[in-house]
């Protein structure tokens, strides 16, 4: 019997997917893999990129921010584009843009060129995952959707596992350019299979809320750029204040635009659900803190501890293993303790673990570092999955899709804000000294980690407002915005 991802003994009457459907699913899986690999492989290479481009490694956060912010800005448009023009055309375009962006990144000769190339990559990445998820929904029977999603997201779970180590290996034994060049053959093959085999499913669409999209995009972009400020953009206080004011006015404008508009990009009736409001605010603040960790950890290990890129990448693996392994016990934990206790406890625990990590490293307890990073991954996963499910679980079906999209956008935006914030902290404590002595660089990192611990702990104040009688109501949910099956 030929293996396929949807073989179910309990449903013998269900038709088996054709060979072309198998290839289509593999294409979506490769898209997931490319997108998730890229979010982790770059972090380990930042010091080498800085050296090659003659930049301060403490100021390289714009390479991460430009990609993640672009994904956040473009996410709301991806589903509508797929419905309007067809999943084949949009997914094909997404792979091409991501691959082209990878090539441009590899050819960049300055930080500015690299940031612009990452924007191109981000446009492709923004469409790749949500459109891939929509593609699966259209090409397999609904009864097999969860099995199909488990199959196509499996490579996406492998990406973060191998990304840091692979990035470190390529940087150490080849050059940082190869962390982008490895996307080229996968992208070309994926684009060819998409064009030849994937049907171009479309759906009837309402008009796209262009006004709301522009207001949200301007609000997110200008506020993030304003936070970048003098260190990232080399602009004065007046321009920074102008960017921040523009962002606030744009977000206020969206509220005016959407409050009585049923066709708005995100319906404000979402916030009539208390758990959605609390969960979304907690997710925004919580992921700002969590978004700092993947950026800071390899940077600290290389600049603060003298690790090679490959060694620093290997040290990230225990954190990913802890994150992946914990997802199987979260249901029982939430059923026993409730959302409020799990979220507040995990938030405070993550703040404590993130502060223990540099202290253990600087104390010379090398063998304890993987253990601390493992527990960091465990606590982080507890919080992530609980936040996602709390936010979406009580929404009515008519608002579930919009709530899912808004949460996905907030997830990306908050990660961008997290990397921007830690870049500001590093620049603030490092000052204008270059290069820093070893004792000075240790002081910079310790001060930054202390501030990070405070930022990570703050969302506990939000999660303390979760009603104590909130029950899980099915932690395994198809509404989870990262598309992964929770069990």
Provide structural commentary.
This protein is 74% helix and 0% strand. The protein is built from 19 helices and no strands. Mean pLDDT is 81; it is low at 1-15 and 472-487. Helix 9 (210-233) runs parallel beside helix 17 (397-430) and helix 11 runs parallel beside helix 15 (339-362). The chain is an all-alpha fold and 487 residues long. The chain folds into three domains: 20-199, Growth Hormone, Chain: A; 210-264, no CATH class; 270-487, Growth Hormone, Chain: A (Up-down Bundle).
List keywords for this structure.
487 residues, mainly alpha, Growth Hormone, Chain: A, 3 domains, 19 helices, disordered N terminus, disordered C terminus, transmembrane helix, membrane, transport, cell membrane, Multi-R_MdtD
Short summary of the structure?
The protein has 487 residues and is mainly α.
Strand content: under 5%
Overall structural domain count: 3
Radius of gyration: 22 Å
Main sheet specs: none
Overall pLDDT metric: 81
Amount of helix: over 70%
CATH class placement of the largest domain: Mainly Alpha
State the CATH superfamily name of the largest domain: MFS general substrate transporter like domains
- Extended strand count: 0
Helix tally equals: 19
Low-confidence stretches: 1-15, 472-487
Shape: globular
In CATH terms, what is the architecture of the largest domain?
Up-down Bundle
Q: Which class of secondary structure composition applies to the elements?
A: mainly alpha
From the N-terminal CA to the C-terminal CA, the straight-line distance is: 28 Å
SSE order, one letter for each helix or strand:
HHHHHHHHHHHHHHHHHHH
Q: What is the CATH topology of the largest domain?
A: Growth Hormone, Chain: A
Domain Major facilitator superfamily (MFS) profile: 24-471
GO molecular function: transmembrane transporter activity
Main location: membrane
InterPro entries: EmrB-like, MFS, MFS_dom, MFS_trans_sf, Multi-R_MdtD
